[in-house]
Amino acid sequence: MGVIIFYFIFHPLTMVVYWYEFNSEPLTFTSFFNVLNHRIEHSFSYRMLDMSFIFMLMGGITGLIFGLYKLNNKKLNKHIQLLNNDLLKLINQGESQFVELKSSVRYDFKQQTTNLDLEVIIAKTIVGFMNAKGGKLIIGVNDDGEILGLEKDFKTLKQQNTDGFEQKIYEIISKYIGKEFCFYCTVYFHQLAKKTICVVAIDKVAEPVYLSKGKDTIFYIRTGNSTKPLTIKEAFHYIKMEKEA
User: Boundaries of each Schlafen AlbA-2 domain copy (predicted)?
Assistant: First the structure.
């Protein structure tokens, strides 16, 4: 298609432009079509073979570039679709040792207002996964698997988009867990049912991880489909068993 467009369209039009550039005749509707007819015949003559080859080459290169872009874009869309399908499967399976569903980070759907205490719950869940075997925290989906999206949460942020939301996640980790633990979390976003949801992929951490809130320091562990606090004695035995395992 690139070769055809450049050879049969751009080539003759370029010849028309050159003709007006080197001749003093004014451009009118009638003269344009007269010159165009003449230039078309001249464009496809044997004398213009070299010029024709250049335009065909340009068309081929342009078509190749657009073709590769479309192919890569198609592969990317297919990859995104596969990720979305996998994510839907996780959501439909419900909460487990490796998956936690949260409606929001700051917006309280029951009170219909901003609730900063929800940030602590997010931090607690992340700590629990870090102390266990890692997992995925999916935000924008309620416990029943209904996709709510992040739009309500966005409105509670200064930067009301995915960049602001990602920044808030890392702020929560830094505030309640520690800046160094941000490196164990990866935040990415998906579009499901025309709504934006967030997935926080959390890695297991070799050392014990604690949640700090005020003067309290709490050790949480992910067990089954819930996150539970351990007493000092329980935490000590758990950490000891993990080191011996």
Answer: 95-230
Query: What is the mean predicted confidence (pLDDT) over 169-189?
Result: 94
Q: How far apart are CA 120 and CA 213, in angstroms?
A: 8
Domains detected in the chain: 2-68 (no CATH), 94-244 (3.30.950.30)
Residue 82: the pLDDT is 47
What is the rounded CA–CA span in Å between residue 193 and residue 62? 36
Model's pTM, two decimal places?
0.67
Q: Tell me the C-alpha distance between 46 and 28, whole Å.
A: 29
Please report, for residues 228, 237, 243, the alpha-carbon distance to residue 207 in angstroms, rounded to integers and kept in the order given. Answer: 18, 14, 9
Burial of 193 by CB count in 10 Å (0-12 exposed, 13-18 middle, 19+ buried)? Answer: exposed
Taking residue 194's Cβ as centre, other Cβ atoms within 10 Å add up to: 7
End-to-end alpha carbon distance in the chain:
63
CA dihedral 145, 98, 129, 242 (to 10 degrees): 160
List the structure tokens of 79: 């990859």
Taking only the tens place, the pLDDT of each residue in 70-102 is 766 665 454 455 456 678 888 888 899 999 999
